[in-house]
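in:
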């Protein structure tokens, strides 16, 4: 329920947490309402994965026009395949998610739909293109990352 240490003014402390403020991750999670997953294994439709319903295959993207999509598939080639398939069914919107434990300059250009995990350090004048997934504990200096957008359903 609680994230890493923070010096942000909304950091939380308490008897169960300690005196060092931490990120209120439960609050961050409440800002998004996860509808569920899409998966091309049609046998999974209607089942539960990690507590969320599998809503259908990638073709189900047309059924959720107001939703935002995100993809956290680690393999870049697999992300590209999923992206192309989802985009072939619907002109979806992409959520950009930056973990509060990511340290970055205000001069970083985050592309639509990129996901940046905790403990990533990003310096100034960096462009991160659409659909980029950056797993935690990375350090990025003066680079340009670009990739085709890739997503799976959330709202």
């Amino acid at each position: 329920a609680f994230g890493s240490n923070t010096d942000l003014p909304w950091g939380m402390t308490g008897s169960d947490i300690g005196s060092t403020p931490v990120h209120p991750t439960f609050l961050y999670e409440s800002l998004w309402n996860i509808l569920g997953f899409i998966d091309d294994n049609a046998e999974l439709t209607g089942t539960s994965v990690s507590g969320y319903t599998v809503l259908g295959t990638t073709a189900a993207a047309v059924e959720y026009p107001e939703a935002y999509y995100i993809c956290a598939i680690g393999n870049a080639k697999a992300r590209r395949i999923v992206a192309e398939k989802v985009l072939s069914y619907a002109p979806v919107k992409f959520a950009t998610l930056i973990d509060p434990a990511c340290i970055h300059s205000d001069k970083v250009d985050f592309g639509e739909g990129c996901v940046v995990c905790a403990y990533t350090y990003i310096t100034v004048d960096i462009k991160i293109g659409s659909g980029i997934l950056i797993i935690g504990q990375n350090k990025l200096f003066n680079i340009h990352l670009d990739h085709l957008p890739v997503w799976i359903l959330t709202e």
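note: Residues 142-155 have pLDDT under 50 and may be disordered.
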